[in-house]
Each structure stands twice: as C-alpha cells, then as structure tokens.
C-alpha cells in the first residue's frame, strides 16, 4: 500500500502532482465550504433562474429593499412573500428572511416556524440574517440548542473561516476586512461549541475563534444558514460605505448563489450522488483487509454531497480488518495553521484551527460496481463537490479531545485526506502529539507545535 514519508506539506503536494498555487491547501482560510443539498422543489415550484432556483424572500418587521434584485443578480427567480404564515413553501427552493427588529421577531414569523422546519426537513434551504439574535434559535430548524449572544463589544470586525461561494463567488471576493467597520457589522455571535453536528462556520468575530458570526448546518434533507449580520440595514442604504457596498453587492448575492448552488453547478447532486469511499474495497489483500460478502453492513466510507447533506450513505459490502490487523494508513504527514503558514515552521495558537493532510491511499470512491481509487481522485478545487467522511474522526491534541470541523478529501488535491480541527484552549505549549481515530482505526499523524 502506498505510503507518504514524513516529507512535509510541500513534499506531499508535489507527490500528489498538484502545484501549490492551484490548491485550496494554501489558502489563508479553510477548504471550500460544502455546497448546499440538491435543489428541492415542491410539485408547484417554478423552474426559473439559472439552474431552476426559486427564492422566496421576506424582511420581517421591515421593507424588502434590494432583496429581489439581489436574487436576480445571483441568477435566481425572486418570489415576494407577503406573509410567512400560510405561505406555500412547496413553490420555492430557498427561503431568505432578514430580521429588521432589534427586539424580536413578528408573530407572523414565529407562527411560521413549524412550516419552515417542514420545508427544510424536506430539502429546502433557509437563509436567515438577523439583527435580533437573542431569541433567534427558536426560528432555526433543528437549531433550538444553539447559544446565541447579542453583543456589540467587538461588532465591527468579521473574519472569514471557510472559503466558499459566499466569500469567492459570482459577485466578487471578500477578505478579512471587507465586512469590517460597520455600525454594526454584526449584532452578536453563536458559541461554536453549541452548534448542531455537521456544521460549517463561515465567519467569526475577529480575534474570537469560538464566536461564529455566520454558520450553516443540515437539518433533515435541507440546509440552514444563519448570520448575526443586520443585512436589511445595509440593503436599505444605511450605514457607512464601506462596508455597505460589500454587504449589498458581494456578500448578499454570493450568499444566494451559494444557497442555490449556481456557481459551478449543483455539484454532487448532478452526477455523483451518493458515491462513497470504502477502506480496502476491491483489493483486500494489498490493504491488509479481510472481506465479507454479506450485504447490508456498513463499510468505512466517505460520501460525496457536503457532509452527507440529506443523503443516506451507500450501504455496501462490509469490509473489516483481519484479526490482529489494523488500518496503518493513511498517515497525516503535514499541517497548516489557520493563517496559512506551515505548522512547525510557525506555531498554532490555542483556539485556532489546524488543517492536517494525509494520504487517501487505500480508499475508493464509487459504489461496488463503479469505483475508482481515491489515491488517483482529484475533487474540484472550488469545493462545489466536497467529499466528506460520513462520521467525524476522533482527534486528540496534546492528550485533549479536539473538535473536528471537517474531514474529507482535500479540494483540488489528488488523493489527499484533510482534517480541520480546533486546538483546545488547554493544550500545552510546544510540540505536542496528535492522535486520530476513525471508526475504530488508529491513524498516525505528525505532531504539531502550539503556542
């Protein structure tokens, strides 16, 4: 079985045949965010806009200035919603709501919570930007446990965590200063530790790595995006410029394009729906695996379609190690710090994210009758087709359990498994060991340096 020696990140990238300048691994942020789930529409949904995305929009407790034109700019078909309660959600693909009140949502909005939850559960996408923050968890399908804090102590500094169509999309590119300097740029934050499983953090407060300004997660077969950004304020022409123009002309249309899945297509849903990666599948001898032909058991696998957004992983032939054997590969041989520097050359700070890179040798993409070796597979660098593990590995840094934010094939790299993990606040300084366990297998990893 192919192994990568401990040659560092540059050697790893050269061995995979990918130029550093062409990979997401050299971005100053994290790999591209997962794309939304496949477009969902009820029987009566219109097929307007690029890719057939119909977006219902409503500013709660305010006016809908620029929302329709923003949707058109993003390539969608806008549908004005007069009242959220009683609306036929089967007629749209995406629901976009901005909250204009600082003190609470309307009875119309709160009364529609169950209908919106059903819409999302069935595959719809709910995009919600809010001034209110305090009680917004009640409006989030599957997000009732999210800890939201309305706070203005550092509300003019927003940093990018995850590079995606939202930050690099058809309307332009955002950086870590693009949304700064507003009055206010955000109205608070979500405690990252309280977010639903499988979440993606898109933006954080500058210097506050545990405080999310915007995040997304799957609920049922659908997607929820929430931000503490007072977007209605900027779309109505208020606030300083910048950042008003960046909110209006880049963030908002990119966000809707991301929700619709327009930029670069709808990804996995169009041609690789439900594909999986299986440890040792097809060549058990060379990978040290025994092999049972009993169908219906879970193998060890990855799935395409954005950390399994609404997709049931393929249930194929069970693959298990021979007695006394264990998965020796992949080895994680290199790490990048949150600022894009190579760990080891530069230390990583506690509370920041480190990206681990290792070989995907021994993994295969595809179903049992249509598969290819992951070692020879290159996911799109855009991240519009993101291949994620169906369960997250367990990672310990310096002996402490660490939160895994992403695990899957590295976008733009051939045959590379990437894990993004948050360094615990209590991690000791210096060179510390990293241990990785995935579905019962202990994987090897380089140590990392922490300050």
Describe this structure in words.
- The chain is an alpha+beta fold.
- The chain folds into 2 domains: 8-29 and 272-450, no CATH class; 50-260, Rossmann fold, CATH 3.40.50.880.
- It is 12% helix and 29% strand.
- The protein has 7 helices and 28 strands.
- Strands 1, 2, 3, 4, 5, 6, 9, 10, 11 and 12 form a 10-stranded mixed sheet that branches. A 7-stranded antiparallel sheet has the order 17-18-24-23-22-26-27.
- Helix 2 crosses helix 6 (244-260).
- The radius of gyration is 22 Å and the shape is globular.
- The model is unreliable at 1-51 and 262-330 (pLDDT under 50).
Descriptors for this entry?
28 strands, 7 helices, Rossmann fold, 10-stranded mixed β-sheet, disordered N terminus, 7-stranded antiparallel β-sheet, alpha+beta, single chain
Principal-axes geometry comes out as globular
Approximate helicity band? 10-25%
What proportion of the residues form beta strands (DSSP E)?
Answer: 25-35%
Q: Please outline the major beta sheet.
A: 10 strands, mixed
CATH-defined superfamily of the largest domain? Class I glutamine amidotransferase (GATase) domain
The CATH architecture term of the largest domain is 3-Layer(aba) Sandwich
Q: How many domains, as an integer?
A: 2
State mean pLDDT (0 to 100 scale): 74
Query: Which class of secondary structure composition applies to the elements?
Result: alpha+beta
Output the CATH class name of the largest domain.
Alpha Beta
CATH topology of the largest domain: Rossmann fold
Radius of gyration, rounded?
Answer: 22 Å
Number of helices: 7
Kindly state the number of beta strands.
28
């Amino acid at each position: 079985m192919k192994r990568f020696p401990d040659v560092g990140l540059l050697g790893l990238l050269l061995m995979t045949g990918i130029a550093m300048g062409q990979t997401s691994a050299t971005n100053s942020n994290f790999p591209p965010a997962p794309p939304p789930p496949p477009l969902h529409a009820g029987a009566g949904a219109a097929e307007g806009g690029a890719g057939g995305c119909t977006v219902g929009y409503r500013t709660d407790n305010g006016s809908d200035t620029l929302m329709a034109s923003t949707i058109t700019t993003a390539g969608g078909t806008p549908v004005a919603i007069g009242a959220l309660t009683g609306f036929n959600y089967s007629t749209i693909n995406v629901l976009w709501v901005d909250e204009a009140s600082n003190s609470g949502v309307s009875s119309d909005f709160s009364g529609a919570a169950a209908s919106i939850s059903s819409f999302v559960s069935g595959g719809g996408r709910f995009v919600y930007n809010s001034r209110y923050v305090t009680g917004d968890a009640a409006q989030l399908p599957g997000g009732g446990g999210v800890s939201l804090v309305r706070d203005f102590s550092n509300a003019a500094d927003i940093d990018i965590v995850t590079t995606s169509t939202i930050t690099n999309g058809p309307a332009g590119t955002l950086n870590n200063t693009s949304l700064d300097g507003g009055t206010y740029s955000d109205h608070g934050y979500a405690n990252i530790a309280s977010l639903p499983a499988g979440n993606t953090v898109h933006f954080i407060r500058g210097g506050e790595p545990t405080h999310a300004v915007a995040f997304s997660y799957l609920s049922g077969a659908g997607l929820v995006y929430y931000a503490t950004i007072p977007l209605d304020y900027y779309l109505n022409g208020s606030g300083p410029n910048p950042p008003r123009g960046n909110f209006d002309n880049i963030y908002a249309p990119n966000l809707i394009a991301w929700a619709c899945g327009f930029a670069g297509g709808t990804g996995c849903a169009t041609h690789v729906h439900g594909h999986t990666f299986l440890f040792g599948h097809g060549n058990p001898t060379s990978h040290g695996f025994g092999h049972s032909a009993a169908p219906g058991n879970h193998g060890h696998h990855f799935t395409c379609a954005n950390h399994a957004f609404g997709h049931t992983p393929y249930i194929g032939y069970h693959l298990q190690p021979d007695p006394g054997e264990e998965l020796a590969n992949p080895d994680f041989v290199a790490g990048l710090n949150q600022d894009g520097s190579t760990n080891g050359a530069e230390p990583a700070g506690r509370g920041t994210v480190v990206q681990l890179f290792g070989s995907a040798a021994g993994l295969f993409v595809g179903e049992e009758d249509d598969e290819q070796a992951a070692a020879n597979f290159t996911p799109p660098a855009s991240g519009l087709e993101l291949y994620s593990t169906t369960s997250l590995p367990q990672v310990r840094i310096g002996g402490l359990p660490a939160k895994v934010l992403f695990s899957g094939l590295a976008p733009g790299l051939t045959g590379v498994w990437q894990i993004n993990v948050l360094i615990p606040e209590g991690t000791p300084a210096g060179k510390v060991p990293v241990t990785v366990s995935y579905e019962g297998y202990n994987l090897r990893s380089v140590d990392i340096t922490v300050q």
